[in-house]
Amino acid sequence: MSQLLPVLVLSGFVVVFGAAIIVVASLLGTKAAKSKTKLETYECGLESDMSGSTKVPIKFYLTAILFILFDIEIIFMYPWALSFNDFIRQGYGLYIMGAMGVFLLIFILGLLWEVKSKALEWE
Amino acid sequence: MLIADKFLRIGPEHYLALSAILFSFGMIAVMMRKNVIVMLMGIELMLNAVNLSFVVFARETGALNGQIMVFFVMTIAAAEAGVGLALAVAIYKKFKELNIRHFEKLKG
Amino acid sequence: MIYEAISFYALALFLTFFAYKTISATNPIHSALYLVLTMLGLGAVFFSLGAHFIAGVQVIVYAGAVMVLFVMVLMLFDLKSELQAFSKGMLSGFLKVFSAAALAGVAIGVISHSVQVVDGASWGVGDPNADVTKYLSILLYTNYLFAFEVLGVLLLVVAIGAVALSRMKGGTHADRR
Amino acid sequence: MGSDIFEIGVNFIKMVLIFVMMVQLVPLLVWVERRGSAYIQNRFGPNRVGPLGLTQLLADAVKFLTKEDFMPERGYRFLFLAAPVVALIPAALAFGAIPLSHPIFVEPFEWLGQTWGPYQFDFQSYKIGIGIVFVLAVSSLAAYSLMLAGYASNNKYSLYGALRASAQTISYELAMGLSIVGILLLFNTFDFSEMIRLQSGPLSFHVLGTVYTFDFLPNWGIFYQPLGAILLLAAMFAETNRLPFDLPEAEAELVAGYHTEYGGIKMNMFYIGEYGHMLVASGLMVTFYFGGYTLYPFLTPGTVSSWFAGSTPTMTSVWTSLILHVVFLTKVLLFLWLFIWVRWSLPRFRYDQLMDLGWKTMLPWALGNTIVTAIVIFIMRTSW
After folding, report:
1. C78 reaches A (C-beta below 8 A)
2. Kind and range of the H or E run holding B58
């Protein structure tokens, strides 16, 4: 807990700082007349139309999910990198290389499949 | 005095109680909500509650097996979220809604 | 002791409040954002329990990846507040809440009776200065090696499955067939 | 945070000062950027307000603060105001974990009729054992401020901009995370201070049991991991949304992006976040690959403290830390200048090129770097 406390204090301080800036800016800011057009959403002068269905490419979602899966595989490499030297020093270097080799092979297979299946193509 | 001591001396049972409360919140979300994505969030909350109890037991026994389980549970939760959201996207495309009852009408 | 109690109750209050907001917010995006705060709070709890690396992974995987995916998908759908977020029926709703509360109550009751018998002295004795992360990684690549490799395969399968599931023409609002 | 009131007070003030330093560096960097880009493009840049145009920053701050506080009618008010604040948090938290200089050791002293100390004050906001994982964790939260801004504006351009930006951020997070694995394999630690300590000696290669030492070169990560350094730097450019990866705010060909509806100081806070990320990126580059606050043959904690052999241990420690801090700042400023330089040297990518670079080029190269590093380290360190 004692190690975490400064982090919490700092994040609290940053939030207070940011909120204070926004409050000060809203107090100091010029008060101009607000008209209906001004408050409208900015869409380069066209009438905004949020009610219609907005088409968003599914690619964004696919990128995010592939990101999660690869992110976890990368995180699995961190403990491996951390203990790599200890394994070598104990004489188990070949073992740890093989253990990670199999995992990396699966990782590379996944990456190759994604490239092959054109899941990563943006046109 | 004894009761105050029970509340102030933080031990594993306090963390486990917190875990149980979070788990039941996740359970309520799964049972009560109709939006598929919110239900998935409820499942994530339940998995997190279980992770908390794993970490507490790891700390209590002094062995790290619990922490490794947390690692695995996180992986599985992420995989589950990925597939679940893929299904949600499929439902939304077909029915323009994320209601759970539409799952009955999906077929391959 | 009193500081530990204060920090525990503050974190517990934070967690239960945001977990409650997660399940009660009618706008799914707000739900997801409250859940992010819950995940961050749990990361803090893990950290304070000495699981430093697990806390970091919790934030990276849950708050930084899984919840980003949730928020992104919800933004893709551009959902508004739901008029009917909860399932219908007073009686069944009451039963559902009651059963969950009963589960929590039973669990807490059992915990408060059993843990004291098992435990006693070991709490707090764990050496905080030991290099936990290194032990963790050595354990992961020796005793749990098989599970680790299987998880690699699982992630591969999920990647293929997700691509296959979402490989359809058009965007989120593709025409009905 | 400390055991007595003095230590807690110093730690708190230190934390606030480091945060203020980060925030204060932003207007200075904006000035450097404007003057620097003017220099590169052979024009004058802001030179009217004050000497060399330096007080332009103050004028800008006043302008930002007195602008009309505007928000679109259809947005979500709380989230709209929260997004710029959230933009500050990841950079501030990550910067706090990077050691800026050698710790200061204070001997016991008498003050107010009481004996205080001894203390050790780290020259960073907080020291966290899992440093690298912590920095990765907090900087993975950066995607939220983009998505909050895009969603809360309730504007199609903002929404698309936010999706574009967050997809870019998370894609390059992979390459960033993977390019660090090489340096982890090398140093086998998550702790920044330990990493810097390992880099403060002479360059020495272990080849099959024998050690070859080069006395004139420092033991910096760049000599072992040149590819990793390049990949990390490129990924950092993308993470900070700087040119050539500035599609989130490519105002010329795409409407501004997630901050279309923002103006005044709220817009500026996104920039504080962006420059803060640049600072964190430079700090990480320096810590991983360029020896942190040490410069081996001349300026290491050992050599610098020997200059002050006559003074008290506390003063020696303070002066050593300050001098080493200047070394760190110099290195960081060189990297910050690189960020500005690249902006006027490279054209912007197209979005599909950007994604191709992240997934199909940088990720495989980072993977190859990891594998080669592991094999080489395995061969070198095994006692055959």
Report:
1. yes
2. helix B36-61
Paired tokens of B80: 């589950």
Cβ of C66 within 8 Å of Cβ of B77? The answer is yes
Every domain of chain D and the residues it spans: 72-195+223-373
The answer to whether D278 and D242 have CB atoms below 8 angstroms apart is yes
Q: How far is CA C103 from CA B22, C17, C18, D190, D193, in A?
A: 11, 19, 20, 41, 47
- Check CB contact under 8 Å for B48 and C73: no
Q: Is B105 on the interface with C (CB under 8 A)?
A: no
Chain C residue closest to B42 (CA)?
Answer: C23
Question: Number of structural domains, chain B?
Answer: 1
A2 vs chain C: nearest CA distance in angstroms? 8
In the block, tokens 């000035």 appear at D31
Residues of chain A with Cβ-Cβ distance to D273 below 8 Å are none
D77: how many CB neighbours lie within 10 A of its CB?
A: 11
Tell me the CATH number at B23.
1.10.287.3510
Question: What mean pLDDT, rounded, does chain D reach?
Answer: 85
What is the assigned CATH class of domain C1-80? mainly alpha
How many Å apart are CA B91 and CA B89, to the nearest integer? 5
Which chains reach chain B with 3 or more Cβ–Cβ distances below 8 angstroms?
Answer: A, C
Per-residue pLDDT, D70: 76
d(CA C25, CA C82): 10
Beta strands per DSSP E along C77-162: none
Place of tokens 């680790």: C148
φ, ψ of residue A122 to 5 degrees: the values are -115, 125
Q: CA neighbours within 13 Å on the CB side: how many for D341?
A: 6
Residue D215: phi and psi, rounded to 5, are -70, -25
Q: Say how far apart CA D190 and CA C57 lie, in whole Å.
A: 13
Tell me the domain boundaries of chain A: 5-116
- Name the residue among A7, A31, A67 with its Cβ closest to that of D170: A67
User: Tens of pLDDT along D120-169?
Assistant: 888 888 888 888 999 999 989 988 988 888 888 877 778 888 888 888 88
Nearest-by-CA chain A residue for D384 = A91
Q: What pairing do the DSSP bridges indicate for beta strands D101-106 and D210-218?
A: unpaired
C-alpha to C-alpha distance for C81 and D247, rounded to whole angstroms: 31
Q: Which pair of structure tokens corresponds to residue B95? A: 């029915």
CB of C160 less than 8 A from some CB of A? yes
- The torsion angles phi and psi of B94, rounded to 5 degrees, stand at -85, -40
**Structural domain span for residue B69:** 8-105
Is there a contact between B80 and B48 (Cβ–Cβ < 8 Å)? Answer: no
What is the ipTM score, two decimals?
0.90
Contact between residue D196 and residue D291 where contact means Cβ atoms under 8 Å apart: yes
pLDDT at res. C1: 66
Helix/strand/coil for D173: helix
Q: What are phi and psi of D101, to 5 degrees?
A: -165, 180
Query: Over the stretch A52-98, which tens digit does the pLDDT of each residue have?
Result: 456 667 778 888 888 888 999 999 999 999 888 888 888 888 888 88
Q: CB-based contacts of B4: which residues, under 8 Å, 6+ apart?
A: none
Write the DSSP assignment of D241-252 as a string of letters. T-TTS-GGG-TT
The radius of gyration computed from the CA coordinates of chain C, to the nearest angstrom, equals: 21
The alpha carbon of C30 is separated from its chain's Cα centroid by a whole number of angstroms, namely 16
- State how far the Cα of A19 lies from the Cα of D348, in Å rounded to an integer: 34
Specify the DSSP element, H or E, that contains D205: strand D202-207
CATH no. for A5-116:
1.20.58.1610
Token pair in block for residue A59:
């690619």
Question: Contact, C56 vs A3, CB < 8 A?
Answer: no
Q: What is d(CA C39, CA D102) in angstroms, rounded to the nearest whole number?
A: 34
Question: Tokens 């060189």 correspond to what residue?
Answer: D334
Taking CB atoms and an 8 Å cutoff, what residues of chain A touch D1?
Answer: 2, 5-6, 9
